[in-house]
Amino acid sequence: MANGPEREMVLLFSEEELREMSGVKRGGDYIEVMCGCTSHRYGDAVGRLRVFINGELEITCECTPGCDEDKMTPAAFEKHSGRETARKWKNNVWVIVNGEKVPLVKTVLLKYYNQASKNGNGSHRSHNGRVCHRDEFVRCNKCNKERRFRLRSKEECRIHHDALADANWKCADMPYDKITCDDDEERASRRVYRGCTRSPTCKGCTSCVCFGCEICRFSDCSCQTCTDFTRNAKV
């Protein structure tokens, strides 16, 4: 079991593709590399970029020892760095390859981001033509059990979105499927079924993992993910 996710990451990016990049680390469903963005006024802001199996990009900033900005989108990191020509993060955020700064757009790291973005523009749909979101899980802060959230409607997506953002979320907060901390957690053999229309036991692909759409992003939410989506949708 422990080697499963790592084998999948090898399929995403080969050792050869990542060999010359600085700071490469492999996680269960992501790879991490050193990244940065350069401002003519403030110099280099460095951070750690995580590329997830579903195409999401997440940056933890290390511009100063006291900076606590993490889980930033590349666009947010670009703005945080003080880059003068912002809103071109694919060209402005870089990684170190063979000792040189190389824009993300010239690396393999955007391969799955680009696939996920294309799916958000129409191909990310189930057989009935509706946008597809797989089931997700949130862990209870009280009993530490994971609970399933179905994301078939905008209302269900919002319930999951808010629960995920709540560090103190607990089973009793579930608005449907009355669940308490005394209820058993789903068995691992059951949790692998997430509602993907391509494969019942899919671990996450561009058919069932949405990178952002009108159903799962909210204009009245102030989180960075929703704010970035709403701003980009208006461009």
Please provide a brief summary of the model:
With 235 residues, the protein is of the alpha+beta class.
Order of helices and strands: HHEEEEHHEEHEEHHH
Mean pLDDT over the full residue set: 81
Query: Helix coverage percent of residues?
Result: 25-40%
**H/I helix tally:** 8
What form results from the Cα inertia axes?
A: globular
For the report, how would you describe the main beta sheet? 6 strands, antiparallel
Report the portion of residues in β strands: 15-25%
> How many whole angstroms does the radius of gyration measure?
19 Å
Structural class: alpha+beta
Number of strands: 8
- Rounded to the nearest angstrom, the distance between the terminal CA atoms is 43 Å
pLDDT below 50 for ≥5 consecutive residues: which ranges?
A: 1-10, 120-130
Question: Would you mind describing this structure in some detail?
Answer:
With 235 residues, the protein is α+β, with helices and mostly antiparallel strands. The protein is built from 8 helices and 8 strands, in the order H-H-E-E-E-E-H-H-E-E-H-E-E-H-H-H. Strands 1, 2, 3, 4, 5 and 6 form a 6-stranded antiparallel β-sheet that branches. A hairpin with a 6-residue loop joins strand 7 and strand 8. It starts with a helix and ends with a helix.
